[in-house]
Amino acid sequence: MGERPTAGVTIEDLRAELDAIDGRFLDELRARIEKCVEIGHFKREHDVPMMQPHRIGIVQERAARYGERHGIDREFLRKLYDLVIEETCRVEDRVIGGSS
Fold first, then answer.
1. How crowded is residue 83: how many other Cβ atoms within 10 Å of its Cβ?
2. Whole-number Å distance between alpha carbons of 28 and 22
3. DSSP label at 35?
4. How many CB atoms are closer than 10 A to CB 88?
5. For burial by CB atoms within 10 Å, which of 24, 57, 67, 69 has the most?
6. Is the separation of the CB atoms in 32 and 87 below 8 Å?
7. Residue pair 100/37 in contact by the 8 Å Cβ criterion
8. Where in the numbering of this chain does the Chorismate mutase domain appear (predicted)?
9. Residue spans per domain, the chain
10. Using the 8-state DSSP alphabet, how is residue 23 labeled?
11. How many Å is the Cα radius of gyration of the chain?
12. Is this model's pTM higher than 0.90 or not?
């Protein structure tokens, strides 16, 4: 992962950079959930089942490969995606069920 010299950099500078990264991360997570809402509407309109186990496997495997390429623990990414997928399934289920 990217390491760099920290001469002249304060902990506040580094934390500000981290906060900016967190903001982008959360914006992307929100965008992902919004896309799942759109997918939920599509599934409802086209009578596509909400649960697509093969798709979940594809997403998790892609995350695992990304982790391997970038030195991020595979199990960490699996757990992270389990949480993300659980939430997006909940959101899609509400859309498909007509609650949203």
1. 9
2. 10
3. H
4. 21
5. 67
6. no
7. yes
8. 5-96
9. 13-37+49-97
10. H
11. 18
12. no
CA distance 99 to 91: 9
> Tokens at residue 42, please?
């599509």
CA 19 to chain centre: 18
Helices (H), 1-100: 11-45, 53-70, 74-96
Q: For residue 4, what are its two tokens? A: 């760099």
Per-residue pLDDT reduced to its tens digit, 21-69? 999 999 999 999 999 999 999 999 999 988 888 988 899 999 999 999 9
* Rounded Cα–Cα distance for residues 62 and 72 (Å): 13
Structural tokens at position 56: 């979940």
d(CA 36, CA 98): 14
At 8, which amino acid appears? G
Q: Whole-angstrom distance between the N-terminal and C-terminal Cα of the chain?
A: 40
Tokens of 86: 């659980």
